[in-house]
Write a structure and sequence with these properties.
TIM Barrel; two-stranded antiparallel sheet; globular; alpha/beta; 11 helices
Amino acid sequence: MPFPIHRMRRLRANEPMRRLVRETELDPADFILPLFTCPGEGVRREINSMPGNAQLSVDNLVKECAEAERLGIGGVILFGIPDSKDEIASSAYSEDGIVQKAVRALKREVPKLLVMTDVCNCEYTSHGHCGLVKDGDVQNDPTLEWLSKAAVSHARAGADIVAPSDMMDGRVAAIRKALDAAGFSNTPIISYAAKFASVFYGPFREAAESTPQFGDRRSYQMDPANAREAMREIELDIEEGADMIMVKPAMPYLDIIRQARDRFDLPLGAYQVSGEFSMITAAIQNGWFDRDRAIMESLTAIRRAGADFMLTYFAKDAARLLA
């Protein structure tokens, strides 16, 4: 019998021993911090459902990003809250849109920080859906033009990476074609390739003011029950020219992350979404979880499943714990 010759506890005896044989490591460079930017000056509007997070005017966004850079965080991803919305999401692809202004400011003030931009329409449409609506249905192909124009405007402002999150069919190919035609052939695309129609997005919709005014997004975001379909979505986005891929949400979909890691060689991201953050934070505030351990264990699980990097609202907290 293996016991007592094989004693697994030998390598768990103390922290130096555990650290020596640890299989999964975290680094602040693995984290991307999601941030919400809005018009105005001196604005820091707290988000009730996401304690510690806020809608930030560009001047405060710059300060937040400077801190992220000091902490060694891998980068930020920007979501915009425009001062006006319409049925055609015109603020999403305006050269003077809020995200475009924010990117220019960050590239001027924090030039070494990696800046990723979310390319979608839900924050900019009066109806809260991710594309052109006709007869109550989101139209796929006309929406591609909006997304392409937004991606080009972000790249022109200085974005390092564009990240389409809309889940329209063919969006990666359309954006790649538009970026190349505009002279941005070196701008990478990270595709929200497997984005599920999840209840865990609830707090984000408060933060981004993007709740649909009718219906839901299940006709374009993925059914949470489907794993094989997720692999097909990822494969198609790679064929269309995605440079990196993403799974969203993260913790409820660790199996999808693992399957994607085993099957595809591209850099793989996972988004620990607002609901994951708020759920863990609520348990911490109620004294049910140890704060530091809950943050680090949740991120370690995502990394262990196969993610190369993680979009997480815990980025600054985790970076400080790793310092």
